[in-house]
Amino acid sequence: MFAVGLAIVDYDSSTGVLREVYDRMRERPLPPVYRPAHGGVPGIITAHSLDPQLIGKVFSTSTTLNGAGPLAWPERELVNAMTSRLNQCLY
Fold it and tell me: Would you say the C-alpha torsion 50, 16, 21, 31 has a positive or negative sign?
């Protein structure tokens, strides 16, 4: 799979460290909206497949930033989506 010219390794094609990271990420509690119908790893995680060591760091920071505070989950998602859009992030 390719996104903006970069190869993305999906769950079925993953091996080694990347597969281990994907398995850990799949075990995390996620809102149902984040669970893909295909049963694999959410696209926002596979977008980081070229650097498996970074995945855990990115999502632990994300969990910390989004895990507490006065905003409800949908409001945090709106802030996240808008931030990604302003940063010209394609996912």
Answer: positive
What string of DSSP letters covers 54-90? HHHHHHHHHHHHHSSSSS-HHHHHHHHHHHHHHTT--
Concatenate the DSSP letters of all residues of 7-62 into one string.
E---GGG--HHHHHHHHHHHHS---GGGS-TTSS--HHHHTTTT-HHHHHHHHHHH
Q: Which tens digits make up the pLDDT trace of 44-61?
A: 888 888 888 888 787 776
Give the residue extent of every domain in the chain. 2-86
**pTM of this structure:** 0.66
Q: 19: pLDDT confidence band, cut at 50, 70 and 90?
A: very high
